[in-house]
Please model this.
Amino acid sequence: MTANQRPLSPHLQVYRPQLTSVLSILHRITGLLLGLGTIALVFWLMAAAGGGRSFKIAQSVAGSIPGRILLFGFTLCLVYHLLNGIRHLVWDTGRGLELPQVYRSGWLVATATVLLTVAIWFAGYAVAGDWFAGAPE
Amino acid sequence: MTRFRNDLARVRGLGAAKEGVQHWWLQRVTAILLVPLAIWFLVELVAHVGAGHREVVRWLDDPIPLAGFLLLLGAGFWHLALGLQVVIEDYIHREGLKIALILLAKFGCLALALAGILSLFYIAFGR
Model:
C-alpha cells in the first residue's frame, strides 16, 4: 500500500497557520456557528408565533448585552461565510486559484467582513436609535 | 499528475461512487441560492431592528418577505445538513457513531426547518 504517500490535508495541530489555512478553517467554524445561530432564529420565530408576550421576552433576550454580543458575532459569521462562500464559488469555476490571487481575495474577504459587519451595525443603530431599550407592545 | 486513488481502489476498478457529486453539487446549489437570500435577510433585519410584535406580524403578512424567509430556512437548513455531514465525516471515524451523528444532524435540521416554517405560517395566517 502506498496510502502514506497520498496528499494530506493541512492538519491544524502541525501546520504553521497561514492566511489560506486560517480562512479555510474559519469558513468551517463560522458555518457551524451559523448553524447554532439559525437555531436561535427558529426560536425567535417560534416566540413571534407564540404571541406578543413570548415575543417580548425573545426581544429582551436578544437586546440584552450578552444577546447583542452574540448577535454581533452572528453578523460577523454570516458576513464572513457569505463573502468567503462567494470566493469558494468563484474557485469552483476554476478562476482565481493562483497563489497571489488566493492571497489577494483572502485579504479582501477578511477586510470586507470587518467593514461590512461594522457598517451593518451602524445602520442597525441608526434605524432604531437605542433599539430594544423599550420597544412598545 | 499525482494519482489520488489508492491501490485497493485501482484494483477494484470501480471508479468513482457515481453519486458522490450530488452532495457536492447540492451544497453549491443551496449556496448560490443563499447568497441573495442572506443579503436580503441582513437588509431586512437591519430595517426591523427592535420591531414590536405587531410590526413583525405585519412584515410577515406580506407574501414576499414570507417567501424569502421560507426559502431562507429551506435552503439554509439543507445547506447546514450537507455541511454538518462533511464535518462529521471528516472528524468522526467510528462507523456507527458517524452514521448516528449524521442522522442526528439531518433529523435535527429537518425538525428545526419544520419548526421555523410552521412558526412563519402561524405568524402569517394564524390569527
User: Anything to note?
Assistant: Chain A touches chain B at residues 1-3, 6-7, 28, 31-32, 34-35, 38-39, 41-42, 45-46, 48-49, 51-52, 55-56, 59, 63, 75, 78-79, 82, 85-86, 88-89, 92, 120, 123-125, 127-128, 131-133, 135-137 (CB under 8 Å). The radius of gyration of chain A is 20 Å. The helical segments of chain A are 19-50, 52-63, 65-92, 99-128. Residues 18-128 of chain A form a domain with the 3 helical TM bundles of succinate and fumarate reductases fold (CATH 1.20.1300.10).
